[in-house]
C-alpha cells in the first residue's frame, strides 16, 4: 500500500516487487528516498487502508468507496526482513490509517517492529505515529525505530480543524504528542549509550499538507522555524495537495509543485543555514506567498545594503547569505581568509575553483572587479 499523500507525486521514485510462494503472493512498494545526496530504497507502506477518520483531502476517508486492505504484522515483518537480507531495501517506512482507534493501530504497528528486531533486523525503521496515541506507545516507538514522527497536517488549529475534523484537537492530539516524542528522544540521548540502530537515532520529523484550503507560505514558514527550534525536528515535509475524486475538496486546484519546492528551499535555509523566518517576511507578497524564485537569491536582491560583502571580515552568518554558498563552502572561505586573505578574483578561484568563484563574485568585494546592482541581478 502506497501512502496516499504520495500516490501521484514523485511516481518515478516508486517501483514494485512481486514476491511470494505459489499460494501467498505479496506486492512490495519500494520507495527511493533521498538522503544526503544518495537514494536509499525503503519498503514504504501503510499498515492498513481502513480508516475511521473523515479528513477532507484523503482518498482513504471513511465514507469513500475504495479498496481496503491490511498487512498482518508478522507477514509484513517477514517480508521486510527478506527484502533487507536480499539487499533490495535498506529499511522500512511504516505509516497507517487509523483503524478502530489510535492506540489499537499503534499496537499493530509496534508488533511489526517487535518482530523485526527479534529477527535480528538492524536496518533503518521510520515510523509514523498516530495522532492521539498514548504515551507508553510513544516510548516504545522511540526505542524500536530510528526515526519517529507524527503528521502535523496543518500550520495552525483553524486549518487543521478544517482538514481533519475528527482527528482530535490540534494542540492535544498532535502538538502534545510531538512534545512527548521530543521528551522521549531527549531521555534516550541522556542515557549516552552507543547504539547502532533504533532508539530514535535519526530524530523526529513531521509532514504538513500544503494548498488544500486557503493558506499561505508565510504560515508554513513560521511554524517550520518553531518546529526546528522548539522541538528539534530533523525534517519538516510538505505534501502538496492533489484533489481526490469523491472527497469534499475534489474540485480544488492542486498545489503547484514549484510552491512545494520553494517551501523546501526556505525550510533548509532555516534548518541548515540559521535563517530566521522573519527574513522571509520581506520576500512574500501581500497575501503571504513566495514568488517562484530561489528564496536565497530573492533575499540577496532585497539587501543591497549587505552586498557586496568583504569576505575578510564578514561573519559566518553573512557569508552563508551569499547565493550559492552552503555550509561547506562558507567553512572553506572562513578558514582560507585567516591564512592569506581574499582580495582578488584569483584568491577566490584558488579557494573555490573558477566556476564557483564566478558565480558568487557579484556578491563579494574584490579589488579587480566592478560593483554590481544587486536589485537587478539575475
The number of domains: 2
Q: Measured on Cα atoms, how large is the radius of gyration?
A: 23 Å
CATH architecture of the largest domain: Alpha-Beta Barrel
CATH classification class of the largest domain: Alpha Beta
Please state the average pLDDT score.
91
How would the global form be characterised? globular
The portion of residues forming beta strands comes to 15-25%
Helix-and-strand structural type:
alpha/beta
Descriptive key words:
alpha/beta, TIM Barrel, 8-stranded mixed beta sheet
Explain what you see:
- This protein is of the alpha/beta class and 378 residues long.
- The protein has two domains: 4-253, TIM Barrel (Alpha-Beta Barrel); 303-363.
- 37% of the residues lie in helices and 15% in strands.
- It contains twelve helices and eight strands.
- It has helices at residues 73-85, 102-118, 135-144, 157-163, 170-190, 217-231, 257-273, 295-301, 316-320, 327-337, 345-352, 354-360, and strands spanning 14-21, 24-35, 38-46, 91-95, 124-129, 147-150, 204-210, 235-240.
- Strands 1-2-3-4-5-6-7-8 form an eight-stranded mixed sheet.
- Helix 3 links the parallel strand 5 and strand 6.
- Helix 1 (73-85) packs parallel to helix 2 (102-118) and helix 3 packs across helix 5.
- The model has no long low-confidence stretch (mean pLDDT 91).
What is the secondary structure topology, with strand pairs?
Blueprint lengths: L13 E8 L2 E12 L2 E9 L26 H13 L5 E5 L6 H17 L5 E6 L5 H10 L2 E4 L6 H7 L6 H21 L13 E7 L6 H15 L3 E6 L16 H17 L21 H7 L14 H5 L6 H11 L7 H8 L1 H7 L18
Parallel strand pairs: 3-4, 4-5, 5-6, 6-7, 7-8
Antiparallel strand pairs: 1-2, 2-3
Helix pairs in contact: 1-2, 2-3, 3-5, 6-7, 11-12
